[in-house]
Amino acid sequence: MISLSFAGFGLAATAGNHLESNPDSGLWQQIHFQFSHAQWVGCSYWDLIQPSFMFMVGVSMAYSYLGRQRRGDSYRKMLGHAFTRSIILIALSIFLMSKSRGYTDWSFMNVLAQIGLGYTFLFLLWGKSFKTQAVTGALILAGTWIVYEVSPNSGIDLASGSPEVGVTAEWAEENLEGIHPAWHKNANIGHTIDWWLLNSFPRPEPFEFNQGGYQTINFIPSLVTMLFGLMCGELLRSERREYQKLGILIAAGILGLVVGQLLHVTGVCPLVKRIWTPSWALFSTGSCCLILAGLFAVIDMCGFRRWTFPLVVVGMNSIAIYCMSMSLKPWTARQLQTHLGDELFTLYGGIDSAFAPTIQAVMVGTVFWLVCYYMYRNKFFIRI
Fold it and tell me: Is the Cβ–Cβ distance between 285 and 47 less than 8 Å?
């Protein structure tokens, strides 16, 4: 969430500025890649933001509904709360996506909508046995793979591309070489469903394609990411010894990385975050398990907690800072320049202007953090 609210610390734009004058710089090429989404196949740091977000939803569910249960809430009441939360998350996503459109943008690819679409189904798996959860996750991923593979689709012609769905020949040759047509950008079953679904809503113009290739049905395989998070959360609150929990998290993380990568390199299923392929669900969840294992070891087992305070401030009001970052970044930057000077983001000429995006992102993100700190100090928490 800090990475999101601080706009990736402006590093993608800063790297882009440096690459304009030095396009062969390996350092800036790597920074630009890591803080941008992979064009199609592959994984960068920035690609792991959304799976981490969704994984955390599952981890937190293992604790939050247990607390509600201990307070005496019935299963029916908790199910109603989960369903209401789903609707609110979807509505909030549509609101945020529509803010600069001038019309209601009925799309469901944003992370909040994706969480909302899967959240009630995730709750239905809360409290179930490990076997039930594992088998359900495996069936969802296998079913997703089958639906993509058997759906009739010719994919993209690499020589000519498909400009009508936003895919040029140059882009196709660079990013779709060796990829089975079932998994091509805007030429798969997910795109076909969106063309039908999104045009069922009132729109000023017909929906043709999503520029990034994202799809509504991503919520189905990404539900598995949340489910794995739920399983890890239940592991953490279990009676197992700490070293056993750590070992299981590490083993699960390595297994996810290996299986996800194997599915990709063998050609069974490409590693594509934008359509949340089953291989991506496994690979990204493996990464999340290893991140959680590292934090569990440092914070819970070793007791190094003080450094986490800036993260706790954000985590206690994650919805608030997400909404601020989605709605107020340009406005906040303009206000800072209005009151502190147009040269603020170059530190009044003290640094190379190529670094201005990073200075701007850090300053704007700090403003959002301070708002959350004020809310934290005054015990004002926005929850859904």
Answer: no
